[in-house]
Amino acid sequence: MYAIITDGSISKYVNHPKSLVIGDVQYPARIFSAWTASELAAIGIIKVTFDDGNKKDEKWYINTNQTFTYDASAGTVTATYGTATAKAHADTTWTQQQIDDGDAPEGADTNTVAVEGLKTILIRNVKAQAEGLLNQTDWYITRKAEKNTAIPSSITTWRDGIRTKQAAMETSITNASNTPALETLYTYVNTADEGDPVVIERPLGEFPELGS
């Protein structure tokens, strides 16, 4: 992206190289690749520098719009983010004022969820993941019911392990104190001691693999 500087301030942006008119002169698109940064700056074209220092993972945070700043003395244009806002980790319920104003659904009260928080969403995802894994071996259960064929102990052990891990994951999510704590649960890090082979894990852990 390039910024066009006119009379000491940003007048417009160019997302992709294209022909353009500056003053009374028509410039071809090839100037963006053929000219140096200094040559472009001389006619008021400056490549935007993106500073993502404040940008955070949008799974957990709401980022601000970017602010574009022209520094005339440095001859730079920088795009920066403001301070990101953590998404709500807990459910938001309807307020009495919203109910009285008719903004809430019919029948809603102050205990009715208006906006689901991250915990609710993440726990639902864990439940769905566990269900999908268990579905892989449900046919053993059906065969046992229909034919009285014994279920292999390895399958029973694995299915129990899925349920145990599901419960542990849900507890960890429920007990997280805030959004950064939730993010930490899902962040993979090297947990090996210095000098040992790398072990990449996340605090939340993983479901056991079938056959492991």
Shape: elongated
Main beta-sheet strand count, sense and barrel state:
5 strands, mixed
Give the fraction of residues assigned to helices.
25-40%
- SS-based class: alpha+beta
- Give the SSE string: EEEEHHEEEEEEHEHHHHEE
Structure notes:
By secondary structure, this protein is of the alpha+beta class. The protein has three domains: 2-85, no CATH class; 87-116, no CATH class; 117-201. It contains seven helices and 13 strands. The protein has helices at 31-34, 37-42, 96-100, 118-135, 138-147, 153-175, 179-185, and strands spanning 2-6, 9-14, 20-22, 25-27, 45-51, 61-62, 66-71, 76-81, 85-86, 92-93, 113-115, 189-190, 200-201. A hairpin with a 4-residue loop joins strand 7 and strand 8 (76-81). The mean pLDDT is 96.
